[in-house]
Design a protein that fits this description.
single chain, 178 residues, alpha+beta, Aminopeptidase, 7-stranded mixed sheet, two-stranded antiparallel ribbon, 7 helices, 30% strand, globular
C-alpha cells in the first residue's frame, strides 16, 4: 500500500477542465471556469494569466480521481484565488493511516495552496473570498489573514507598507466576489 504522499499529485494546468469539471460542478453547481479573456475593472486578464491547480489521488486499485481544484487569476500585481473545491467524500474513503498523513499536511486545500505558493510568487499578495468557517481555518493556516471585510482575505507575499496594503485592499473590495 502506497503512502498518502505517493498517491497524491498536485500540479498547475493552463486549463484543468478535463480533470476538475465534475468536481467544480458538484461543489458550486455551475460550469467550470474556462480561462478566457476576462475584464476586471478595465484591466484585461488574458487566459495565460489564469493558473488552475488540480489534486489527483491514485487509489490502491489504480483508479485516479480528481479530489481538489483551485483557480488563481493574476490581476495587476496580485492573484485572485477562487473556486477552491475538495471532493466532499474523499476523506471518509481514506484508510486511517492515509487520513492521518493527509491531516498532518493540513488536507487537500492546504496542500494545493502550499504548492501554488511555491510557484505563484510574482505578486504582492493573494486575495480570496471565503464564506465558509471550515475553509477559513484552512486559509488562515496557509497564511491568509482576515481584514475589515466579512469575506475578503489576504495573504501578503511581499513586505509592503501599510498605505500600499490599504490601497490594495480597497481596490480588491471594489471587484466584489470572484
Amino acid at each position: 500500500m502506497a503512502h498518502f504522499r505517493d498517491s497524491l499529485s498536485v500540479f498547475r494546468s493552463q486549463t484543468a477542465s478535463e480533470y476538475a469539471s465534475a468536481l467544480f460542478r458538484e461543489a458550486f453547481g455551475s460550469e467550470f471556469p474556462i480561462p478566457v479573456v476576462y475584464n476586471i475593472r478595465n484591466t484585461i486578464i488574458p487566459p495565460e494569466a489564469w493558473h488552475q491547480y488540480v489534486a489527483l489521488y491514485s487509489w490502491d486499485d489504480g483508479t485516479v480521481e480528481c479530489v481538489g481544484f483551485c483557480n488563481w487569476m493574476k490581476y495587476k500585481d496580485v492573484y485572485l484565488e477562487g473556486g477552491m473545491a475538495v471532493q466532499n467524500r474523499f476523506y471518509r474513503r481514506l484508510d486511517k493511516s492515509k487520513f492521518a498523513e493527509c491531516a498532518a499536511q493540513g488536507g487537500i486545500a492546504q496542500i494545493m495552496m502550499e504548492t501554488a505558493a511555491k510557484e505563484l510568487v510574482d505578486c504582492v499578495a493573494w486575495f480570496g473570498h471565503c464564506g465558509d468557517k471550515r475553509a477559513l481555518k484552512v486559509d488562515l493556516r496557509a497564511g491568509y489573514e482576515q481584514i475589515d471585510d466579512p469575506h475578503l482575505i489576504v495573504k501578503w507575499m511581499q513586505e509592503i507598507d501599510e498605505t500600499t496594503k490599504r490601497a490594495w485592499i480597497e481596490e480588491i473590495k471594489q471587484i466584489g466576489p470572484f
